[in-house]
Structure formats: C-alpha cells, structure tokens
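Example 3.2
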Amino acid sequence: MAHYAKISDSNVVEAVEVLDDFYEWTDTGELDENRAVAKLRSFHGSETNWKKTSYNQNIRGKFAGVGDTYDASKDKFVPPKPSAYPSWVLNSDDSDWEPPIPMPPADETRTWEWNESTLSWDEEAQ
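Structure, written as tokens:
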C-alpha cells in the first residue's frame, strides 16, 4: 500500500490517504507517482494537491502527518515546531527541529532534558 499526503494551498498536510500500489504502476512495470495522484484527484477533486510519503522515510524526509508542512524547495515534510520549545531551530539538512545547543553525551547513568527557561540541558534525576 502507498501513502499520499493531501497538501493545502499553504503547503500544510490536511490528510494522509492509503492507496493501493496498483495505481502507481505503469504498463511497463515502473512506479509513477503521477498516476496515483491522478487517481486521488478523481476521488477528491481535480484541484487537490498530493505528495507521496513513506513510513520508512526513504522519500521526502519523514512520514507526513496532519499539520506537517511540505517544503517544496527541499521536497520534504517538516513537522510543526514544538510549541514548548520556541528556541529550537530547524535543521536544514534533515528538516527536523533541534535545540540551539547540542545535547551532552548520555549514558546508563546520565540522561538530559532540555530546559527552555535557561536554554540549557539539565541532568534528569535518576
């Protein structure tokens, strides 16, 4: 089964639909995303915008979720910025949000939690 994200005019994912792989295959045995999009448009309207997404993240960066944004320039889905972390910045390479300071190394005895009020990492109590 293939998965396709319905994208709004403002590039926000509105829904994710499952579509039988049959609709992607051409007569010559090649995958064609445009064939699947045409079928989805026949179901949902000719003006709808669709992009394939993948659970194994081998296409468009991550599996699209409702509320994600589609970045057309990178051809990737970007999750919403975590509301609890306004200081976090978007990593342009993997299109994910990161704290402004990298997390210190963790091990079996030390784990870390981001503290937004001090913009630093606090050691979690064990």
